[in-house]
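Put briefly, the fold is written as integer tokens. The lines below illustrate.
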Amino acid sequence: MMGAVRAPVVTLWLILSSGCTLRGTDYLQSGIGCVPPLADCDGDGSCETNLADTAAHCGACGYACDGISCKDGSCLLDTLEGMLVWQIDIDDQHAYLTCEPPRIAYVPLNGGGHWDNFHVQLSAGLFGIYVDDAFVWWVSQAFDAMDQQFPALFRKPRGAAGADAEEKWRGAAMTEVVAGGVTGSGVTIAWSYGSDLVISEVAGALKAELPMSRAVATGEPSVTGLSTNPQFDILWATFDGDLTRWPLGVDLATGRERPFDVVFADVNEAYFVEFGGGEMPPAPNGRLGRIGWENPPQGPVPAEELVTDLAEPVALVLDNSHVYFSESSIESDVPGSIKRFDRASSTVETLARAESPDDVVGDLDMHGETLAWWVLRAGETPVVEVWKRSKNAYTLPP
């Protein structure tokens, strides 16, 4: 049997320098590696797997779509027709989405099923959602015995069916409720409604009411992003341009261009995205930024702009090595995308891209290796696609 043919170094250099490309198998046998999306997933020394459309190896070797389609290295989990989606949060089994008409839909991450109702809201006022190891949390409106509505923090065991397992804790009495956001750190839950912020300690077993809830801020402009950490700190962004930290109530950054989300990286470091926009005609001018401060912070600190000219970014998540963020492209005439920023090298790579500039890429979340997000497809009837992808997947061309 004839052995593998290895291209001489000079011949290989001539081919590469001429601008020609070798097939994936030739690249691997030449010691260069496979050309994405081709990969050697069975370890036989050839680039036999196309990560772009192989359901068992979608985006990365061993990352499976489990019975659902793989397209461009991402798994299409499900399609929601006739609904709009606001936020998404995931655990190891499901993606939970807050929708309009008001409901929480949950979609299996591992294929084999379609979306179902986790919670149905009879009236408006459902936006933020957060999933921890045991519960799904959300902020919505509720009604008392006098049929007066008030904001409430809800929780329900993950994967539970029906409303019997739901618990709620009342916020301040209001006649009109603006749905808010919610996030947590494992021992605390930070939640907002309208212009009010509340922090609640939730460690321990189920109780009739939260061990402690206290108002953090009232009368704030519209809160667009929330983050908390185990030290009971809260960091929030407002659409008028401030990034503020509690318990001292110190503005860490002011005058930003519509910050939309913010996430703690450490007790004295955070990343944020700002929507930008406002230009006519619309042009991508959003940003990914970073702020660091002394503990305790004394006041506004310079913000480091890491990536500029983004198409209206709206959400971010991070791990020890990267920041992952979504470009919504709500206003810009470019396709929205999911990108990652390398915290060490400052390089930016594209993991997924919408098919059309008219599509809107929305919120995203991460659990383990999985990134999940939604895309609103352009058309007369709302159609929302829910996607997942390995955070270690191959990257797309710029």
Q: What stands out?
A: Residues 66-390 form a domain with the Methylamine Dehydrogenase; Chain H fold (CATH 2.130.10.10). The chain has one domain: 66-390.
